[in-house]
Amino acid sequence: MAATFSSSSAVIGLGSSSLSSPSRISSPKKICLGSGFVKSPVTARNPLRLAGTHGGKFMCFERNWLRRDLNVIGFGLIGWLAPSSIPAIGGKSLSGLFFESIGTELAHFPTPPPLTSQFWLWLVTWHLGLFICLTFGQIGFKGRTEDYF
């Protein structure tokens, strides 16, 4: 079922003159197709034109913007494994309980661990401690190398 509509074509716009006018082609004036209410007072800057400020190079980020330091990862991991391996929870360590729970959950592999399993508690606790150690390690190493303290 296709319906055909026929009507005269009309161009409706915000401009000051008709687009079909022959004087429009030769006129050097620009038609404003926007409203003054919507127009932003801030002009957009083209980053390609700002290349001259950096000696012709396009600089968006620092060269090593991630600042990956393997010392932070290594010392942060050791700094978390040492205290989490102390047998403080019923004669067992947090790392031992976490790795033991991984083994018990892998014993019935195709089925996931239930929400009431101790695995989730040890998983969240162990990783939270690791991320805190890594964060403080990053702050300490970068603060030391950049002379914050």
From TrEMBL:
Question: From which organism does this entry originate?
Answer: Salix dunnii
Q: Which NCBIfam families does this entry report, sorted A to Z?
A: psaOeuk
Q: Where is this region: Disordered?
A: 1-26
Q: Where are the transmembrane segments?
A: 70-90, 119-141
Official protein name in the record? Photosystem I subunit O
Mind telling me which InterPro entries this protein's record contains?
PSI_PsaO
Keywords assigned:
Membrane, Transmembrane, Transmembrane helix
